[in-house]
Design a protein that fits this description.
alpha/beta, Rossmann fold, 3 domains, five-stranded parallel beta sheet, 13% strand, elongated
Amino acid sequence: MEKLTADKTTLEQLCINTIRFLSVDGVEKAKSGHPCLPMEAAPIGYVLWTKYLRHNPKNPKWPGRDRFVLSAGHGSMLIYSLLFLTGYDLTLEDIKAFRQWGSKTPGHPEYGETPGVETTTGPLGQGFANAVGMGMAQKFLAGKFNKPNFPLLDYQIYCVCSDGDMMEGISSEAASLAGHLKLDNLIYIYLDNHVSLDGPTDLSFSEDVGKRFEAYHWHVQHIEGNDTAAISGAIEQAQRVKGEPHLIIARTHLGYGSPHKQDTAAAHGSPLGADEVKATKQNLGWPLEPAFYVPKEALDCYRLSIESGQKREDDWKTLYANYKKAFPELADEFDRFMKGELPSGWKKALPSFQPKDGPLATRQASNKAINALAPALPFLFGGSADLATSTETTIKDSGDFEAGRFDARNLRFGVREHAMAGALNGIALSGAGFIAYGGTFFNFLDYCKPSVRLAALMKLRTIYVFTHDSVGLGEDGPTHQPVEQLATLRATPNVLTIRPADANETVAAWRVAIEHQDGPVCLVLTRQKLPILDRTKFSSADQLEKGAYILIDSEGLPEIILMGSGSEVSIAMEAYEKLKEKNMKVRLVSIPSLDLFRKQPKEYRDRVLPPQVEKRIAIEAASSFGWREFVGAKGEMVGIDRFGASAPAEIIYEKLGLTSDHMISIALKMLGK
């Protein structure tokens, strides 16, 4: 190994080593973590955060700030050290509490837990895609609000990523999209250390990353990662070059300074150990005691960020005050946009449907809702993964978001479901009132799920429009027919899943989705046309907000309850009518959202599903998993606990027993008739 030395007399080196050893000591105390990414990236963090990153430690949400994303979230002590040193609401005691219960310094950076953390990272590639979404959001805001001499929102997005980020497929998708869109507000720094968890990267990774990104139309530079002058020069060049996103490939050394673990997999994911900590401190000229030592000179240098950050924000506020005088109406819109406040009367824009308008697929009703809402909600911003004509997610007359037209509202993600979902999260995280949505076939939830999960963890305001929701898709067959996806979503905390039964329930679902601010909403919609329920006969679709409601009832307590979601409600309705003709007391219940229903008071739930009525039948063209809670021990579920088939939809429904006749036969058997 090369001889590692440090010039103890320079303030710069003192600042860099302060990051290194706060990280080393934090991981060592926790007996868990990844100390060696902060050790290699400390020079980059120091240069970026003290010289180039526009941020105000005393106001982490300042709209004009640059964004910093640590996509390589396993190196979380890098960002925690920088946040503490530059003066954010993070103390040395918080650093010492790394990875402990209730601390502000969890194992990977978590949005909402630590001031200054812009997104939750750790699953590799997610931060990479989030940063692309942040870049898209900035371009949209700049295209809408910036004016000559008033660069109101000209911030940049910096992202530090690792070999693992480069290997994950989501990063390839997101990088390709960013290059196509010419997002020159993105500056990524790739820690090219040649080591991953299993060993040297050449065990599995030998591509030329720089050439790959050049093929994506990125501007690529190569530097030595410990050369602070080279780091500064590369960042400045990236800031100057327009028309391309930027990748700075920094040759770094994992675990820099560790005499026995530098450049080895042993340095990746575990504490150095007491002996190696001592050897590393000696090697880099750092005091052995006390742990968590922060030299006053280094802290004073970092804390200059407080004064400089406040000045930058004050300058921005002056710019905005002048902007408000020059463009008062636009400034008012900007204020509303930043707050994400829903304008008064926005619900009046929502359409309603009559039986004579149908039948109508719920994806079609969704499109009508989107286009009714778009003029009233300028922050509704979304698109599709190359399926807009199928998912019906286009905002008409709005144009396509692309280089030269960044104020358009239709996002064309291409066949990139991974990147779409990750970018939507980045848009939602951008500090404005965006309601970001994206559409694809429900079966491709598999490609979106990691990002959906992180949206749930962060409680982001994202909307996923999943169409072609069942075996009702028909001839495309089981590769495209989701059967397990509803159960997957319903099992994920903080995800609100809604499967509407007709056009009016779909409109109500969009209303709930727009108002929901505590996690992502998944709208699960049909390809096939469904009858529009006559609301003069059936209960109002507005009751969808309760998750389940009585569509139509018997006189007195029912003998049996029929229930279902989505397209199968109309099947249950047919069964209801036929059983009623047989003079049976039947209740018909629509359950568009198990999630919402579970949140209702027990009194309401018992009113809809009285405990004393134990004869119940539920129908849904999906896995029966999760329904036992509602049908009870003596009820039955008509579902699909197998994969689908390639055939016309009506044949599949008949062969799999998803029919009113099947429900009736079960009901008669239950009732002994």
